[in-house]
Automatic annotation (TrEMBL):
GO terms for biological process: defense response. The keyword Ion transport does not apply. This is Disease resistance R13L4/SHOC-2-like LRR domain-containing protein. Residues 292-384 form the Disease resistance R13L4/SHOC-2-like LRR domain. PANTHER family: PLANT BROAD-SPECTRUM MILDEW RESISTANCE PROTEIN RPW8 (PTHR36766), RPW8 DOMAIN-CONTAINING PROTEIN (PTHR36766:SF3). Keywords: Plant defense, Repeat. It comes from Arabidopsis suecica (Swedish thale-cress). InterPro entries: LRR_R13L4/SHOC2-like.
Amino acid sequence: MDSNSIQSFDALPHNLRECFLDMALFLEDQRIIASSMIDLWSALYGKESFICMNYLQDLASHNLLKLLPLGRNEYEDGFYSELLVKQENILREFAINQCEKESSSIFERKRLNLEIQENKFPNWCLNPKQPIVINASLISISTDDSFSSSSWFEMDCPNVEALVLNLSSSNYALPNFIATMKELKVVIIINHGLDPAKLTNLSCLSSLPNLKRIRFEKVSIILLDIPRLGLKSLEKLSLWLCHFVDVLNELEVNDVSETLQSLQEIEIDYCYNLVELPYWISQVVSLKKLSVTNCNKLCRLIEAIGDLRNLEMLRLSSCTSLLELPETIDRLNNLRFLDVSGGFQLKKLPLDIGKLDKLEKISMKDCYRCELPDSVKNLENLEVKCEEETALLWKRLKPKMKNLTITEEETEHNLNFLHLF
């Protein structure tokens, strides 16, 4: 590692040093979705997402990581899944080395990286004479494709606030010791294998009193398990490239508004077998942001979506099979932002969309087949982002609308997208 990088680290303020060291929780030579880092820091340090985004930009300005955009620049809307983070291996090793300097005892370090290859555990895990107590606040556990979840050992982790699980096997049962992590605020599970890993034993997450954020990447889960966990403190759920076992014909869950009473944000991205949203999502009345993007089989939204009375942002971008939106959307009285960009099969907007008097922005790039109802004339101070062909639909109505702003943007293509897979 060159002296310039060391000087860059030494020059960082304390909060950015901590953020840099947190990067070591993720595997080497991987491109991390920016939302993963932002979820981690938001939960750990109680900061708004845009502040965490500033942390990433500050670290990049010190050459301690690289930011790779995937073609869009919509960070002002709080959407960071179109941005990748890359850290050089030598910088990760430096971060791990700094973490190890904090204490000679692995049981007392603030950050613990545990790597398990071929079911071979570190010596301190084997045949302990007394229960293993780990005092770390952040733990990363990485396993290879030969790992057997039946091999988990028991340990007590009373102070853990962040858990990152890097896995590669096709089946993965969460370790029971997660249930001891009563201070856990954020759990991030990333599968690095080729296909979604079947994730089981989610019940160990049940009733963790401080768990605020869950992020699953490339795993297969039963969607109905989420509301059954009783996570009353959960604020954000993120699902990326996941496979859902029970997408259709699921049973209703009682009292979702109670069991998920703090949930404000759901992100579902690149989940290719999602045809319809599960009904229980419409019962999460605390929800403020719902983002379903790059889900190519999603063809409709449930009518009950109109029950989300606190929803402020509805993002449905790049859902190429989406034909229409339910008329019940006109009941979303707090909606400020609607994104249907990339929905080139979208036939029309809801008939009474003009009732949404708080709506400030619509993004509808490549929606040139979409019919605009007369009620859109009632929308005031509206900003529409779209490409040239869709803009023609709105320009015809501009003389009849109050303070309509049309921002034309070209469709962008970026090969950094390939690094996601």
